[in-house]
Write a structure and sequence with these properties.
Length: about 525
């Protein structure tokens, strides 16, 4: 055991007692106190589990966020030699530049939450034997008793499924900097950091603190913050000031760009990014950038109706009261790429009547299918029109959100981006696509695409289409057509011999009043 002296300070106003607190929203009323103390960086790192959670961040609970190893290396180098020496390229760190060395002080506090015994994070529970105990010393001084020995630096919970007593709200990369580098070197064990600690702070308030510290003062880009900290995507207080709306529109734009530029995307160079008139568009390019952004914003990036299970965005909404999925941009893009790639595959490689009629309307000779047939990229298929894009995105989002609500494990995927650095977006997508293809969710993606491919995607102006079919397909035009095509597609999937049929049935029940 180690004892640490802490200063308890009061930060609370009487009017705060009347603010909205909600355990359901994970913003239960907090204590009116916080604590200030200092601690060895390696002990703090150990008690917060930073040693052990390289890939253990499903984003469901707590604050373990994506780690950027390059950032921690920068901090480690700064501590050793300060600025500007630490920022010099290695070849310039010569004897001539020794005068540029300075102390690398880290005076800004690490902000943590002290977890109470019995609380759970990521399926693990803090045991009583590992709890931090508090005892009054004198005045506003408090003694904290830690479950780590004086000389211990690599503490573990007392049982395999135990939980570390600290969770880091802000300062994770500073703690990572106190690990060993690639040569086995590390900073001294007695280097201390200031700590501001809350006790039993609900994770919704931790999200709020992270935003207040990092985003409100414009220290980091809001879009980047939503990737670092997925729980922010479901915070209703951000909706009021449009930060979520801005994030969703920006992310929709980013995903559209990736779908258009990623070589393995079925939409590679087929999205009209420049707003060209239809007559000037390259072959196969019929859906505009604006249409894609609007479609993604209203489906996968939509907050949805309050209280409803269906019609919430898979990429942003709370899933089964465990927070949003922790998927960052590469995995979001990879999911969409895999979805559309499998749809293209089944359209091209299945002998559907509507495909035969569209690509060979006069039944002349043998139909030779190529990778990109007119049934997927042509001018007479709804799949290459705004209505088809919106229809596929809308229903696939809703069905996969229902699946996630039933069994979140289908979406617990963590590609190992750290092996390739941080500035190689296409390689990140490559890894994400590979991770998806080897994960159990891929079978659902494939089954959805296979079932959806058999729907008649001919547009109203397709050749040899009967008049009653033309009239039916004209109903897909305009904003009301999005709802019609989504419902038509759901009923079609319900009749399929596919695992997605049950999801479609549930969707139709949930949306029976629409």
């Amino acid at each position: 055991m180690t004892k640490v002296k802490a200063l308890r300070f009061h930060q609370w106003l009487p009017e705060w007692d009347h603010f909205e607190f909600s355990e359901e929203s994970r913003r239960a009323k907090p204590e009116p106190f916080a604590y200030l103390f200092s601690m060895s960086a390696v002990k703090l790192r150990s008690l917060s589990g930073v040693y052990h959670r390289v890939h253990d961040d499903d984003g469901a609970e707590g604050l373990q966020r994506k780690h950027n190893p390059e950032r921690s290396v920068e901090i480690r180098d700064f501590v050793r030699t300060g600025y500007p020496h630490s920022s010099l390229p290695k070849k310039q760190q010569t004897a001539d530049n020794e005068k540029l060395r300075k102390p690398g002080w880290l005076p800004t506090a690490i902000v943590i939450n002290i977890i109470n015994a019995g609380e759970e994070r990521r399926g693990k529970t803090l045991l009583e034997a590992d709890e931090i105990s508090f005892s009054n010393s004198s005045g506003n001084e408090v003694d904290l008793t830690l479950p780590i020995g004086d000389g211990e630096t690599n503490w573990r919970p007392s049982e395999p499924n135990g939980l570390e007593p600290f969770e880091v709200i802000d300062g994770q990369h500073r703690l990572w900097a106190f690990g060993e580098d690639e040569y086995g070197n590390k900073l001294p064990d007695d280097f201390e950091l200031p700590v501001v600690a809350f006790r039993g702070l609900d994770i919704g308030w931790q999200a709020y603190l992270f935003w207040s510290i990092n985003v409100s003062p414009k220290k980091i880009n809001p879009s980047h913050a939503f990737d670092l900290y997925p729980l922010l995507r479901s915070q209703d207080w951000l909706e009021t000031f449009s930060e979520l709306k801005v994030y969703r529109e920006a992310r929709a734009q980013e995903l559209t760009d990736l779908l258009n530029q990623y070589p393995g995307s079925p939409w590679h160079k087929r999205i009209n990014m420049l707003g060209l008139p239809r007559a000037d568009m390259p072959a196969g390019t019929r859906v505009s950038q604006n249409s894609w952004v609007a479609a993604l914003s209203s489906t996968y990036l939509s907050y949805g109706r309050k209280g409803a299970t269906a019609n919430k965005g898979l990429f942003v909404a709370d899933v089964a009261k465990k927070g949003p999925l922790s998927w960052a941009r590469p995995l979001q893009a990879a999911f969409l790429i895999c979805l559309w790639d499998r749809l293209r595959y089944w359209v091209v490689n299945s002998d559907h009547g509507w495909v035969r009629q569209l690509v060979n309307p006069n039944n002349q000779g043998n139909l030779v299918k190529v990778e990109d047939t007119d049934a997927f990229t042509g001018s007479k298929t709804i799949l290459n029109q705004d209505q088809g894009v919106r229809g596929i995105l809308a229903l696939s989002n809703d069905l996969f959100y229902i699946l996630a609500h039933k069994d979140r494990s289908y979406f617990e995927i963590e590609p190992d981006y750290e092996t390739i650095g941080s500035e190689t977006e296409n390689l990140h997508i490559d890894l994400a696509v590979s991770a998806l293809k080897s994960h159990k969710i891929f079978s659902y993606i494939d089954e959805f695409a296979k079932a959806a491919s058999s729907y008649d995607w001919q547009s109203a102006d397709a050749p040899n289409l009967p008049d009653d079919e033309k009239l039916k397909k004209r109903a897909f035009r305009g904003s009301g057509g999005y709802v019609v095509i989504r419902s038509e597609l759901a009923r079609h999937l319900q009749q399929s011999a596919s695992p997605v049929a049950q999801l479609a049935t549930e969707w139709l029940h949930l949306n029976s009043g629409n």
